[in-house]
Design goal:
Layout lengths: L1 H26 L1 H10 L7 H31 L2 H18 L8 H24 L1 H4 L5 H28 L9 H18 L2 H6 L12 H17 L5 H30 L4 H29 L1 H20 L4 H27 L7 H30 L2 H7 L1 H11 L4 H6 L2
Helix pairs in contact: 1-7, 1-8, 2-8, 2-11, 3-5, 3-10, 3-11, 3-15, 4-5, 4-8, 5-15, 7-8, 7-12, 7-14, 11-14, 11-15, 11-17, 12-13, 12-14, 13-14, 13-16, 13-17, 15-16
Main location: membrane
Subcellular location: Endomembrane system
Organism: Halanaerobium salsuginis
């Protein structure tokens, strides 16, 4: 049992590690840096739109790769090796952001896409360990523990970087721009350092792959992927859940990726934006665990309903946002439900899939979210560019939550668990 706890804590430690990327790179410092520095020469709200399109390209690449990678990881028994590879890729791309300067929005987009490939690709293999390490422990609890650790770890490094950027002179740094560049390096170091427990303690079956060529390896992976896809109709309830998740998680992801640059566009100060997102992290930490308790009482599905209704209120209020106080308020409300919605979605899905095909099915889980993530930022960016006002972009995200609730209501969870 002690060894099992060590494995679970090592798994959660990876969420602590890579959530620094989510907080600093995805949600706060880089979007502001992209608008104010990398995209400083872009007119109007083009920097905001280009950031949205950058998200779309990044998600397209990982969406195309994720099912193949999931199937390959299951076949080879090399989930941990794949995880290590993508961590190195993500850490490298993140560190390269240090070299982005004024007007370099194309370079910033390229380095971000590289880093995001490492982040999103690594999460496929990280998520696939969940059913395997939760055999004698509540999967809702373990999933929520991971998200809670992520929010706390990501929040701590964000707090350090907030001080670094707002008071650069205290650290003998020449400017807040240089401090932002240094913050990208801190993410790379943090991510790599706290990934080490996962590299050491997560299980990896011993398997001799010496006689398997690279070409043959991918051929087998593609055949397995094709088999899973053609037989997905056997898991009708699981398929319905994926469609629902595809929609509402796209809405959640779009808010995470676009909220800060949207707030910067309407004139909210950088310190308020980063501070408010920091508040989100620390509220989300206990609330992710709280949602596990809520799920135990009302079921995970109903817990997700609760979170999505609150997200609808957030997007509607976001249209009228015009002050730092409004942004702080919305950030606090998002913190109440963000971790819970994500943790319960992951654990609910994990409870409905065949355990012996966890990486393969989490590959499909990744595809459903990554392809969906193509749509949200694109809708936001195109709506904002078409209307010349990003307020309509944030309003357009409401539909993702409404349709997600409708589709989720049609999922029979117990029937899904009986389908395999």
């Amino acid at each position: 049992m002690q060894a099992e706890k060590k494995t679970i804590y090592a798994w959660a430690a990876y969420d602590w590690a890579n959530s620094a990327f989510a907080t600093v790179i995805l949600a706060t410092v880089l979007p502001i840096f992209y608008r104010d520095v990398a995209g400083v020469n872009l007119p109007g709200n083009l920097a905001t739109s280009y950031w949205g399109y950058t998200q779309t390209i990044a998600m397209l690449i990982i969406a195309l790769l994720s099912p193949l990678l999931g199937a390959a990881a299951d076949y080879s028994g090399a989930k941990k090796k794949f995880l290590k590879t993508f961590v190195i890729l993500g850490v490298t791309g993140t560190a390269l952001l240090f070299f982005v300067g004024s007007g370099n929005y194309l370079i910033a987009s390229c380095f971000f896409i590289l880093a995001n490939l490492g982040f999103a690709g690594g999460n496929i293999f990280y998520d696939s360990f969940l059913p395997e390490i939760s055999k004698s422990v509540s999967i809702d609890h373990v999933s929520s523990l991971g998200y809670a650790a992520g929010y706390l770890g990501g929040g701590l490094l964000l707090a350090v970087n907030l001080i670094l950027i707002s008071k650069p002179a205290l650290f003998k740094i020449s400017s807040s721009i240089r401090a932002s560049q240094i913050s990208f390096l801190t993410v790379a170091i943090w991510w790599l350092l706290f990934s080490l427990p996962a590299f050491k303690y997560l299980p990896e079956p011993e398997q001799d792959l010496s006689d398997l060529s690279v070409v043959k390896y991918w051929q087998i992976a593609l055949k397995r992927l094709q088999f899973t896809w053609t037989n997905l109709h056997q898991y009708q309830e699981l398929w319905k859940f994926l469609l629902a998740f595809w929609l509402y998680n796209d809405g959640i992801g779009t808010i995470i990726r676009m909220a800060t640059i949207y707030g910067r566009e309407i004139g909210i100060a950088q310190s308020d934006l980063i501070g408010a997102l920091l508040l989100t992290q620390f509220i989300a930490f206990p609330c992710a665990l709280l949602f596990a308790k809520i799920a135990a009482k009302i079921t995970a599905k109903r817990g997700i309903y609760l979170a999505l209704i609150i997200y609808i209120i957030v997007t509607l209020y976001g249209y009228f946002l015009d002050s730092a106080f409004d942004f702080w308020l919305l950030a606090a409300v998002v913190g109440l439900v963000q971790g819970g919605a994500q943790a319960l979605s992951r654990s609910l899905y994990g409870s409905m899939i065949p355990a012996d095909k966890s990486a393969e099915f989490f590959g499909f889980f990744g595809v459903s979210s990554k392809f969906a993530s193509l749509l949200g930022p694109t809708v936001f960016a195109y709506t904002a560019q078409l209307t010349g006002d990003s307020r309509y972009g944030i309003l357009s995200i409401t539909i993702f939550f409404v349709l997600g609730i409708i589709l989720l209501s049609r999922v029979n969870v117990e029937k899904a668990r009986e389908e395999y």
